[in-house]
Amino acid sequence: MLTRLLRRLLFWLIGVPFGLALTLFAVANRQPVDVGLWPLPWTLQLPLYVQVLGGVGVGLIAGVCLSWIGSAGLRARARASRRRTRELEREVTRLRLHQQDATPAEAPALPRPAAEQASLLPGMIS
């Protein structure tokens, strides 16, 4: 519930003003500009805001892709950790079932902890 409220708040505090600023930028920069595609003989005539926002968009997409590629090792380690966790959880379940099935005669007697033995008064029978 809190996450949804926080998202709505961020949308209204950041998203709407940002969108408004982009709209104002686009309206203020409608004049056409020639773009030469250097090794090719063609030129394009596009509004300035398309070039600027297009460049920002291409940079954003390139950054996301490079970040995703860079985190491939982290994702692989996370998958391996999840796999290992599942294996260990199955092992714990198996051992608990085995422990419940074991009779008291089968279970070895464990010695008392040293702290408990030291706290007994001399001469007391435990």
Automatic annotation (TrEMBL):
Residue runs in coiled coils: none
Record flagged with keyword Glycosyltransferase: no
GO cellular component, one term: plasma membrane
Keywords, comma-separated and alphabetical: Cell membrane, Membrane, Transmembrane, Transmembrane helix
Transmembrane segments: 9-28, 48-74
A Pfam match: LapA_dom
Lipopolysaccharide assembly protein A domain residues: 29-92
Protein name from the UniProt record: Putative integral membrane protein
